[in-house]
Amino acid sequence: MTENVKTNFISQAWLVLFLAICFGGLLAGVQILLGPTIEANKINETLEKVPEMVFGAAHAQELAARKQAVDVMPLSVEVEKAGKTIRYSIFEAKTEGQLAGWVAKTSGQGYADKIEMLIGFDPQVEKITGLYVLDQKETPGLGNKIVTDAWRGQFLAKSTGQALTAVKGKAKAGNEIDAITGATISSKAVTDIINTAVNDLRQPLIAKAKGK
Amino acid sequence: MADQPTPLERFIQGILPENPVFRQLLGLCPTLAVTNNMKSAVTMAGAVLFVLFCANVMTSLIRNLLKPHLRIVIFTLTIATFVTIADRFLAAYLYQMSKTLGPYIPLIIVNCIIICRCEVCASKQGVVTAGADAIGQSIGFGLALSAIAAVREILGTGMFFEIRVLPAAWPDWVIMVLPPGAFLTFGLLIGLVNWYQSIRTPQAGKSEG
Predict the structure, then answer these.
(1) Does A20 contact B at CB distance below 8 Å?
(2) Model ipTM value
(3) pLDDT tens digits, residue range A19-47?
(4) Which domain holds residue A126?
(5) How far A180 CA sits from the closest chain B CA (Å)?
(6) For a tag site, which of A153, B28, B42, B209 has the least CB within 10 Å?
(7) % of residues, chain A, pLDDT over 70
(8) How many domains does chain A have?
(9) Chain B within 8 Å of A11 (Cβ-Cβ)?
């Protein structure tokens, strides 16, 4: 009886098992073939942006045209805050052995979902040298304008001494940013993420710059 | 089994008479979700073409070995494999697009169009018919997606394939690129297709299967 059931199961399910093994092998092959490319894509997306974040788009292109290498070294910085340890991915940019600036990968809650950004700082973390949005799902047509060059450009050369605020209407003071019309929450989310990153990272990065 | 549709009939049926989106109302999740611009709509249609073609051919090849009560397991296994391959390919060679489409590529696994074609056509007919059926249905799906995406991208952003076609003075109808725009456009286009069908066949409803 049991013998019967056993052979019956095998005769019923052999095709499923056989296909599962074949397809498993096929997928493993695909992963071996494409896995490295996919990983490289993810890392490149960040690394490619580092020179622009530190030197600005125009100067970064100039450096690339002169074939002047920008050495980028990834490192991680741990910050103790409210009993929790937060890890930041930091990219250290160097030209000809000189520290040129830092790029921090950071994220925070936006209007719809997490906003993931790169922020560039000068070596002494006194100024913001670049801002790039890696990933966001803000409202199309309103909040997703945070990715536009025009809006991101406002952050260039802003001092990190004072917390940034997004204001409706026209920004007047040095630490004010024009909020996007109809997307005040997205705009505030971006300034909040920057302020948090500045607060967390200023001390550790200055210490690292001195240590070099 | 004598009056099974021929490959050519299968191919033509998929494009309009049995269009998966407008006539069968299948695969509506990607239809609504990724049609706010032409690029993602075309990529999605391409991915579905690849998956549907491979799954149909595969199912057709093993159709005589299928046990009736295990067929759905095998369909799902086959579809999931090819979807994963398509997903990895996009991540490797069209990285930005794969980020834009996000979860909707893996979700092709549960796209009813594919399991429906495996069940209706590929598990009963030969490889050539199954292949022709897959291509016909995919073209139908691609046309439907493109039709919706064209309306939404042009009205919502004034652009077509990211090239400006309407004057800069056009006030972008932001609602068209938001989810409500998908429902509005889709509803109006179904209405249009039904109206067209009804003037072509005056006794509509009777002659259609």
Answers:
(1) yes
(2) 0.76
(3) 999 999 999 999 999 989 988 888 888 88
(4) 54-211
(5) 15
(6) B209
(7) 95
(8) 1
(9) no
In a domain, A14, yes or no: no
At residue B53, the pLDDT reads 95
Of chain A residues 25-64, which have a CB less than 8 A from chain B? 26-27, 30-31, 34, 37-38, 41-42, 45
Residue of B nearest to A37 (CA): B92
Partner-chain residue, chosen from A16, A135, A140, that has the shortest CB–CB distance to B77: A16
- CA distances for A146 relative to A127, A151, A182, B108, B207, angstroms: 20, 6, 12, 30, 53
Q: How far is CA B193 from CA A154, B31, B149, B186, in A?
A: 48, 16, 16, 11
Q: How far apart are CA B121 and CA A125, in angstroms?
A: 64
- The verdict on residue A170 lying in a domain is yes
Say yes or no: B156 contacts chain A, CB-CB below 8 A.
Answer: yes
pLDDT tens digit string along B138-153? 999 999 999 999 999 9
**Which tokens belong to A65?**
């045209």
Contact A141 B62 (CB under 8 A): no
Return the beta strands (E) in A36-83 as ranges.
71-81
Question: Bridge-partner residues for A109, per DSSP?
Answer: A114
Report how many Cβ contacts below 8 Å link chain A to chain B. Answer: 59
Say if A17 is an interface residue toward chain B (CB within 8 Å).
Answer: no
User: Where are chain B's structural domains?
Assistant: 7-200
A176 within domain boundaries: yes
Is B100 in CB contact (< 8 Å) with chain A?
no
**What would the mean pLDDT of A104-128 be, rounded to a whole number?**
89
Residue range B54-76, pLDDT digits in tens: 999 999 999 888 888 888 899 99
Q: Has residue A172 been placed in a domain? A: yes
Tell whether B92 lies on the interface with A, counting CB pairs under 8 A.
yes
Instruction: Taking residues B29-35, report their average pLDDT.
Output: 88
